[in-house]
Amino acid sequence: MTSSDFLSFLKSISTKPLHVLDASIPKSQYITLDLSESNSELQQIDVSSSSKFSIYINSYLKDHNASVAYGGYKEIRNIYSRSDHFDVDATSKRNIHLGLDLWCAAKTQIFAPLDGKVHSFKNNDNYGDYGPTIILEHNISKVTFFTLYGHLSLESITNLKKGDVFKCGEKLATLGDASVNGDYPPHLHFQIIRDMQYYLGDYPGVCAKQDLEFYIENCPNPSVLFEMG
Fold first, then answer.
1. How far apart are CA 102 and CA 188, in angstroms?
2. What is the rounded radius of gyration, in angstroms, for the C-alpha atoms of the chain?
3. What is the pLDDT of residue 111?
4. Tens digits of residue pLDDT in 204-213
């Protein structure tokens, strides 16, 4: 299946927008957020400090009377320079974001947007990493693909088992805080993955420029499921 065919397939799954947060949150409570290297405001923030970064995110939400800030697919970000976890080699770093981020309060409930089963899970506890992560496997109309949920609470994976089934709309997890989520302001990293390759409980959510063509083919824009820009 070509990448354009796969995108068309994703769009055909549901006639209504799917939800990974509480469906009762109105669209008016969502606001786009630019965390790219071109955001001059962000250049004034010490993003190596999760507390200072959180002040920026919380102020942004308050200023826009919003509950959720979202965005980030294919965004070139400087925020990853704080951690050598994103080094590729001496001359290149991973700094292009491959998922959709949803910035909201810690303990926010996360729901399965589609029927699926647990492919794998893991606490990716490197500085700047996902923290607790769940990957669901979906098989819809004989098409298999995966969704990744990063920056969760430790409780989200405590009693989880491989193969556990989650129905669309069923509570899957809750968001973690900076003490467990890789040291970020609370947010969900949501990513669609066509081929998991050899990964278990983890998959790159940020890539280097030289690898972008492969990753955008394997990880299409997640917004297609939620009718977000």
1. 5
2. 17
3. 97
4. 999 999 999 9
